[in-house]
């Protein structure tokens, strides 16, 4: 098992005063900084006196420059291919660059990037409705359409938050303290390795957002079903397109009387815009389970090593366990049938 260096490297140690100084030095702006939560990087909302807002990100020192540029280039591509999509825009530094490398006080170095800050209510703070989930599915499909044809040398970089790489976390299973849960994850991992993994290389692939969770999509205040923003492109990667759908669907299971019906709302709406093929639908359930496994394994491993950030790291751990335990009570055929209830069967191509 190879661990992403950003998961074991301490984030940059900067405060609001440092962020304000960087904004002035690199961007020529006098801004007020407010620190935001984050797992690998350091993020600040930057407020201008005229009401404009920006996001200043200081990347984890272990983040590869070409991966940072992958994210930047993807945002620029989306801005050209679908200008009306509500994604952040790049703010150029005084020297015209989109990214700047800085030296940290502890001797390390990091890359800095500024984006426009988009307003909205995180979906986990809204009333969840079937209409909202369908809007999410359509929005995600639109985003993926905007990314069609985008290429970058770093697009196939190594990232563990990727359902196509779930098998690489197998060694973490023995570290789960609860025996029953350990057996549950081992069971789904075996299904994944048998039913999904051998098929992934033959499926259509493109660059995807790869983290369409309830914190990375914002709703218009007072309009639960209207999408205001798509944020956080930090996990972007070239991967099977069905993995995008599986990842998004995994976050629709929580806080629902019928979790699979909730996921089906998103899947069906996505399928209406970008029809999913039969071979993709065949393993969608297994990939949703893979995302849940990835979540519980990585978060529990990291929470032990970064107890000071445990609350943020573990924010999706409980819902992921609930999803796995719910899946554990169903047969695969039953689960697939309910998950795909709003999809016509795609023809294999």
From TrEMBL:
Function summary: Catalyzes the GTP-dependent phosphorylation of 5-hydroxy-L-lysine.
Subcellular location: Cytoplasm
Residue span(s) of domain Aminoglycoside phosphotransferase: 37-260
PANTHER family xref list: AMINOGLYCOSIDE PHOSPHOTRANSFERASE DOMAIN-CONTAINING PROTEIN-RELATED (PTHR21064), HYDROXYLYSINE KINASE (PTHR21064:SF1)
UniProt-recorded name of the protein: Hydroxylysine kinase
Reactions that this protein is recorded to catalyse: (5R)-5-hydroxy-L-lysine + GTP = (5R)-5-phosphooxy-L-lysine + GDP + H(+)
Statement: the UniProt record of this protein carries the keyword Kinase: yes
A Gene Ontology cellular-component term: cytoplasm
């Amino acid at each position: 098992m190879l661990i992403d260096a950003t998961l074991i490297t301490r984030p940059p140690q900067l405060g609001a005063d440092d962020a304000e100084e960087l904004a002035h030095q690199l961007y020529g702006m006098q801004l007020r900084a407010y620190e935001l939560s984050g797992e690998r990087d350091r993020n600040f909302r930057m407020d201008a006196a005229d009401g404009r807002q920006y996001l200043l990100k200081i990347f984890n020192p272990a983040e590869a420059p070409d991966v940072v540029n992958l994210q930047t280039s993807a945002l620029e591509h989306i801005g050209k291919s679908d200008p009306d999509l509500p994604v952040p825009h790049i703010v150029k530094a005084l020297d015209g660059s989109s990214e700047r490398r800085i030296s940290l006080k502890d001797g390390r170095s990091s890359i800095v990037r500024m984006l426009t800050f988009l307003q909205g209510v995180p979906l986990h703070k809204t009333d969840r409705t079937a209409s909202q989930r369908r809007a999410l599915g359509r929005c995600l499909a639109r985003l993926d359409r905007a990314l069609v044809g985008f290429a970058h040398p770093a697009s196939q970089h190594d990232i563990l938050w990727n359902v196509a790489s779930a098998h690489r976390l197998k060694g973490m299973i023995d570290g789960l303290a609860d025996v029953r849960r350990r057996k549950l994850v081992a069971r789904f991992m075996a299904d994944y390795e048998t039913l999904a993994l051998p098929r992934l290389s033959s499926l259509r692939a493109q660059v995807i957002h790869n983290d369409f969770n309830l914190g990375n999509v914002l709703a218009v205040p007072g309009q639960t079903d209207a999408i205001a923003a798509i944020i956080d492109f930090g996990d972007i990667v070239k991967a099977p397109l069905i993995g995008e759908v599986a990842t998004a669907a995994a976050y629709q299971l929580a806080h629902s009387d019928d979790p699979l019906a909730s996921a089906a709302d998103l899947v069906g709406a996505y399928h209406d815009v970008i029809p999913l093929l039969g071979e993709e639908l065949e393993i969608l359930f297994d990939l949703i389970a893979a995302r849940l496994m990835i979540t519980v394994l990585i978060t529990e491993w990291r929470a032990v090593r970064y107890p000071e950030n445990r609350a943020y790291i573990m924010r999706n751990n409980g819902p992921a366990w609930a999803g796995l335990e719910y899946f554990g009570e169903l047969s695969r055929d039953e689960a697939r049938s309910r998950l795909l209830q709003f999809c016509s069967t795609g023809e294999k191509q």
